[in-house]
Design brief:
By secondary structure, this protein is of the alpha/beta class. About 30% of the residues lie in helices and about 15% in strands.
Amino acid sequence: MIDAGKTIINSNKSGDETFLVRFISSDKIETVQDFTDNKELLMDGLDSFYVEGGQTAIIDAVYLSAEHVSEYKKGDDSDRRRRALIVITDGEDRNSFYKQEQLFSRLREEDVQIFVIGFINELDKDSGFIRKSPREKAVNLINRLASETGGRAFFPESISELPQIANEIIRDLRTQYVISYNPTNKAQDGSFRAIKVTVDQPSGGDKRIALTRTGRLARKESATAPRPPDVRMPGATTPNKKPPK
């Protein structure tokens, strides 16, 4: 996984910036390296990653990381900067502060594309009459993270697939179009407006699909959601104990 991360970072062009987050439980979400274009610092950060057991808090990690990506600005080109998260996880959330619907509500407000590499093979496949299996829940979460943000989900069978997956993510990040439209409904009421983009298929060529968000929010001012306790994110060296805004 570290090698896959290095493949992606090595593809960075001039001006590209990356940050690294290592997450375990809700109280241990750490920014190993904040935004930088220095590849040497990023490589050192990746080399410091290690496995640690705990109550995985993927929802909290994605929530806070997406927030950090969305809020990061540089110069006057902030509106055109591509913002993306690449998440490597087994997809099993065990003890997050935030709930799934809080996460997806926030993601609808952020202009962040999420790519997920899901290692789900070790998760239990058995489900009950009412209860979904851990694997099924993980797959659903991973697919939703990707589909609702216009990203992609990958489920490798082995680590040998990671180089190809990393290169596919690089290709997707380097290929984009900016499309705008003038909505007939001008109300800034905070409601979600579903948007569907389709692509005319070329004759005799490969099928093409549009990787897009499922819609946009008609933004309005709203209160900031409460933050989870004792979170080291982003870039802090001590727990964040600030009260909610």
